[in-house]
Amino acid sequence: ELQQKVEEIELLKVELQMLETERVRLSLLEEKLMDVLQLLQQLRDVNISKRALGKILLSTLESCHDPQPGKAHLFEVLDTLYHELTACELLQSQPLETAQSRQSLSNPLVISC
């Protein structure tokens, strides 16, 4: 019975480690998603055209064509989208004051449709 309890404890330790790894992965994914959403909001505020935004999205998807989408693939797509958005000329030409004032909003991720 004692041996069984030891084995159960070992299994629980392994499961806890897996959960912690998943928590960290999800946290990183959430951070990247928040960054992408903030950039999208900034682009909306400078009135980016739907066509230009569509081109950015298509460019992202084309550069991330992986036949086996998985957990790492999702992060790769978000990361690539983030870099595509930061390279957008509209954001680069935006005055620094405007960019800082948008970041100081109470909830900068609320995007009204």
UniProtKB/TrEMBL annotation:
Highest taxon above the source species: Eukaryota
Coiled-coil region: 2-46
Pfam families: CCD48
Swiss-Prot/TrEMBL keywords: Coiled coil
Name of the protein: EFCC1 protein
Originating species: Crotophaga sulcirostris (Groove-billed ani)
Organism phylogeny: Eukaryota, Metazoa, Chordata, Craniata, Vertebrata
